[in-house]
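Tokens for chain A. Residues wanted.
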């Protein structure tokens, strides 16, 4: 890290919110600022342009993006987190403004599915352990865990706005989550609710 160079000198891919490297060394970037408080003349958030694969020499390929950049409610307008499967370079999980999506890049076009059917609320985080355990967090204190990527178990915390997870690299059965609080008192909204 002693020398740094611009990857995209024309700034065609902007508002990068998450970067991940897959098992084969490929890099993917998610765009759009999900936690900046919205998009309007009085707010600082920016709608993104989707999920990209960096293909080398300043080039990139759009994997999936919003149908337009005029509304924060359109799928892929913002991306909070991109996570890669630890051994399969074709599998990505993306926490975005309308839920979590699993992307299988082994098909053309990529196959995109929702691992938790019928949940389309804003997702905060997605983490995958080195042995493939998955944790998904959503607005409002919902958290789902899976040991196999198929069966998910739900936990819910009251008065929570946002959750962010870390999985211990030495023991994937140990997970930590930090929550911010949601209350009716504006001065205490989004304050730390605790680490569990």
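Reply:
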């Amino acid at each position: 890290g002693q020398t740094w160079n611009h990857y995209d000198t024309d700034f065609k891919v902007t508002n990068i919110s998450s970067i991940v490297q897959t098992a084969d060394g490929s890099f993917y970037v998610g765009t759009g600022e999900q936690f900046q408080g919205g998009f309007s003349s009085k707010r600082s958030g920016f709608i993104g342009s989707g999920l990209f694969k960096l293909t080398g020499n300043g080039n990139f390929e759009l994997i999936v993006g919003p149908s337009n950049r005029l509304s924060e409610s359109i799928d892929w307008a913002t991306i909070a987190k991109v996570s890669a499967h630890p051994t399969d370079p074709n599998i990505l999980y993306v926490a975005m403004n309308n839920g979590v999506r699993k992307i299988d890049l082994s098909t053309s076009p990529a196959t995109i599915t929702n691992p938790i059917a019928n949940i389309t609320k804003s997702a905060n985080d997605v983490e995958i352990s080195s042995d493939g355990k998955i944790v998904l967090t959503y607005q409002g204190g919902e958290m789902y865990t899976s040991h196999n990527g198929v069966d998910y178990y739900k936990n819910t915390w009251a008065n929570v706005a946002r959750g962010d997870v870390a999985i211990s690299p030495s023991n994937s059965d140990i997970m930590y989550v930090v929550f911010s609080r949601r209350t009716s008192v504006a001065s205490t909204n989004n304050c730390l609710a605790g680490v569990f």
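The radius of gyration is 17 Å. Residues 66 and 75 are 6 Å apart (CA to CA).
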